Amino acid sequence: MKTNPDVIIIGGGLAGLAGALHLSRKGLQVTLIEKSGYPRHKVCGEYVSNEILSYLKWLDADVLKLHPALISKFEFSTTKGKTASANLPLGGFGISRYQLDHFLYQKAIANGCTIIKEIATDVSFSHDLFTITTASQTLSAKIVLGAFGKRSNIDQVLSRDFFTKKSPWLAVKAHYQGDFANDTVALHNFKGGYCGVSKVENEIINICYLADYATFKKYKNIEDYQRNVLYKNKHLKSILENSTILFDKPLTISQISFDKKQAVENHILMIGDTAGLIHPLCGNGMAMAIHSAKIASELVLDYYAGNIESREALEKKYTQQWKKHFGQRLFMGRVLSKILRNKTITNALVSITVALPALLPGIIKQTHGKPIAIN
Fold first, then answer.
1. What kind of fold does domain 7-165+257-366 have according to CATH?
2. How far is CA 241 from the centre of its chain?
3. How far apart are CA 69 and CA 184, in angstroms?
4. Helices 285-304 and 14-25 meet at what angle, rounded to 10?
5. Is the sign of the CA dihedral 154, 156, 161, 163 positive or negative?
6. Nearest Cα to 196, choosing from 210, 182, 183?
7. Which one, of 285, 66, 327, 287, lies nearest residue 196 by Cα?
8. Neighbour count for residue 168 (Cβ, 10 Å)
9. How close are the terminal C-alpha atoms of the chain, in Å?
């Protein structure tokens, strides 16, 4: 059995990598287990709120060095193409997961983190110690962070409630070349879902949409579905018809669950989408993932420093902090999702936001946080 790391992180997405950077920066030995290599594309909206910029700089991971698209405006359209727009209260940036994850991975390696490219097949906790099993080795550590994303085999191992429930959602994403404003993130509604459009680095357009599986399965392929469903929104039709896909084919993921999850399960501190998934329409999942890594990392450091007296206290404090920072955002995401699935209410809401320009930025603030303070 291999031992010694102070912290094992299962999953090397944004939350896992940010946690690895934070903890290693402060001198802890970190082992991160990730099944895939870098760089890689992932199904993601690829818009990030500026609330996490100062934290990334503190991690010595200044994302502005990657030349992301700088985004300051938001546009929304209904199924019938009626639009509302607003300036984003904090603004944000567009960066591909292909670039950002690889950037953070390289920083983690430089910090001395151990990265294991394997699948974690089992995790158990006994006598105040975790045991993690992969295909080739067994590791142990006192602290484990769960950063294994929206849905994983480890969720099944842990018998998490949401995993047993069938989800009606799937997501589709691809990069395109075409004409779209550099400073705008758009959300276009269509029957059974909604689609985010924004620029990332190198003038690339990221198009990512969430679709209801019941509607999607009526069509033989993605192209057929887009022509018959997404094209009903004239804005989406114009964007897709006048853009050239850069992937061989779009990426897809299914069984996306927005059910409530526990921030701590089997003594594992869950971060990012593993702890709770906000609806993509809120455009804030990437920032939340990174912020949750900061919260967990600071508490773990306090625990190792003796400032938190027990594991029970650590878990309680993390659960409280998770709810404080993200509980309201997740709730608003669920509310907005229900609203956008009702055409009558959505049309009325757009009319109101046009008449009351301050309303839309106010709604956006409910799903975003304040700039992260660095102590």
1. FAD/NAD(P)-binding domain (3.50.50)
2. 28
3. 9
4. 30
5. positive
6. 210
7. 285
8. 16
9. 38
| Cα 102 to Cα 240: distance, rounded to the nearest angstrom | 28
What radius of gyration, in Å, describes the C-alpha atoms of the chain?
20
Asked if residues 273 and 285 have their Cβ atoms less than 8 Å apart, the reply is yes
DSSP code string of 313-348: HHHHHHHHHHIIIIIHHHHHHHHHHHHHT-HHHHHH
Question: HSE (CB half, 13 Å, CA atoms) of 2?
Answer: 13
- The DSSP H or E segment spanning 225 is helix 222-228
- For helices 343-355 and 359-366, what crossing angle results, to 10°? 120
Q: What is the pLDDT along the chain (375 residues), one digit of tens a residue?
A: 455 799 999 999 999 999 999 999 999 999 999 999 999 999 999 999 999 999 999 999 999 999 999 999 999 898 888 888 889 989 999 999 999 999 999 999 999 999 999 999 999 999 999 999 999 999 999 999 999 999 999 999 999 999 888 888 999 999 999 999 999 999 999 988 889 999 999 999 999 999 999 899 999 999 999 999 999 999 999 999 999 999 999 999 998 888 889 999 999 999 999 998 887 767 689 999 999 999 999 999 999 999 999 999 999 999 999 999 998 888 887 777 777 667 777 667 667 776 666 767 677 777 777 888 887
Distance CA 262, CA 14 (A): 19
Task: Compute the half-sphere exposure of residue 178: CA atoms within 13 Å on the CB side of its CA.
Answer: 19
Which sequence spans correspond to the domains of the chain?
Answer: 7-165+257-366
DSSP string, 280-291: GGG--HHHHHHH
Nearest-CA neighbor of 214 among 249, 251, 254?
254
- Residue 332 and residue 367 in contact, taking contact as beta carbons nearer than 8 Å: yes
Which of 82, 71, 86, 64 lies closest to 180, judged by CA?
71
